[in-house]
Specification:
10 helices, binds manganese (II) ion, Purple Acid Phosphatase, chain A, domain 2, 312 residues, single chain, alpha/beta, five-stranded mixed β-sheet, 19% strand
Amino acid sequence: MKIVLLGDQHLRAKTPVNRKDTDFSYTWKTKLQTVIDYCNKVKNIYAVIQVGDMFDSPDVSNSVIIDAIETYRQLPQVYCIFGQHDIYGNSEAAIKQSPISILESVEAVRIIPYKGLTVAEICETLIDNINLYGVSNYQSLEEFNDVDDTNYNILVCHHMICSEPLFTEQQHIKPNNLLEKFKHFKLIVCGDYHYRFINKYDNRFIINPGCMIRKSISKQDLSLEPSFIVFDTNTNTYEVIPYNFKPPSEVFDLNNIKEVPKDNSKILDFINNLQKQISTKLDWKEILTSSIKQTKPELLPIYNQLLEDLHG
Ligand SMILES: [Mn+2]
């Protein structure tokens, strides 16, 4: 069975700083059209797997969500998980506010569930004995029990898995260590790290398709050749299919480089790491409320008003 593997996408309407696109939605729709055309031509693609960070943030405009729905409906069944960019605060409590949940509710995608359910529920039987397991970024990569080795099990995860971290102290897992740890899976597909790698060990694969669109002028982004992967579970072979992409000099305004405004991804990483290290769930509102109560109780009305505004 052939499946298409799609990396981080970061769909949004606004053109990223330093890119030249006049209509960024047009840019990413054109990329996905390459996948649609490929699937229509090849015909025997049974499923599409998207590895999370489908959206650049949970508050993308409605037009982005509508365009994504219309685009994904033209593909074979899309299975996906959540990246930290898809959910407010990377918190399970905010899943319903994620654009991905809207896509699922109109049946444009299926979210791949994790292991906390019964075996019958976690296994998305695609065809014959192929099963999918999903570990979104807010979930931790623990050992899986009750996985039937006679199946062709595929694990999809959104965690920092790479050979070389992007910065010195970045927490990461080495691809081959994950293959070694999760022996029940014949194929592990991962996102989060934006650069493609394909590792094979003991006839099992770990693949990161790499991000679909170069977002920044970092050295890694400039040398990236955005592609998607077609994997054949019958033959255990793969093909790398490049999107139509132009050289960096045509994509980025390299003569007039602007500083990228700081986003909140470092804060999200921080919250995420804290959540992984404590057993109880962190509720930032509770923490902030109790801290304000203790230190500046006179600010509580303003804080409450802010919270109301935030939730519209
Ligand atoms: Mn990402």
